[in-house]
Amino acid sequence: MSSITIDVSEALAKIDPVQMEKAIEASMKGASDLVRADVKQYPPPPASSTYARTGTLGRSWASRVSGLRAVIGNITGYAPYVQGADTQAWMHKGRWRTTADVARQMADPVKRLMEAALARWAR
């Protein structure tokens, strides 16, 4: 049986973990901004609705990146009833996307953004 041995220790020694973490953190900030912009989009109001939207729910989405973790949340008390994956009220189902819906829809764009950032860092 033949084998090939490749020694990458010299290349690994040149990797600066601090710079890599900064690149990942910057890309996570971009990814969280992308998801936050998507999750705060309102669906069209029902045709018969007379309710005047305030925009509070959309404005209350925020993101925070800390190290290698990004958190996107909403402090509005009624947010779980409008967009919560397991807590959405019946009148919003089928009209408002849940946070789980947005996470599924944004998985590929976030993955592409992160891959591009890592590719730029690796150059």
Strands ordered across the widest β-sheet: 1-2
> Are there runs of 5+ residues with pLDDT below 50, and where?
none
H-E order: HHHEEHH
What is the number of E strands? 2
How far the N terminus sits from the C terminus, by CA atoms, comes to 35 Å
Query: What can be said about the biggest beta sheet?
Result: 2 strands, antiparallel
What portion of residues is helical?
40-55%
Number of helices: 5
Report strand %: 5-15%
Assign an overall shape: elongated
Helix-strand category: mainly alpha
Mean pLDDT, all residues: 86
Radius of gyration from CA coordinates: 21 Å
Explain this structure to me?
With 123 residues, the protein is mainly α. Strands 1-2 form a two-stranded antiparallel ribbon. The model has no long low-confidence stretch (mean pLDDT 86).
Jot down its keywords.
mainly alpha; 123 residues; two-stranded antiparallel ribbon
Summed up, what is this model?
The chain is mainly alpha-helical. The protein has 5 helices and 2 strands.
How would the blueprint of this fold be written?
Blueprint: H1 9-14, H2 17-39, H3 56-59, E1 61-66, E2 69-74, H4 79-83, H5 99-122
Antiparallel strand pairs: 1-2
Helix pairs in contact: 2-5
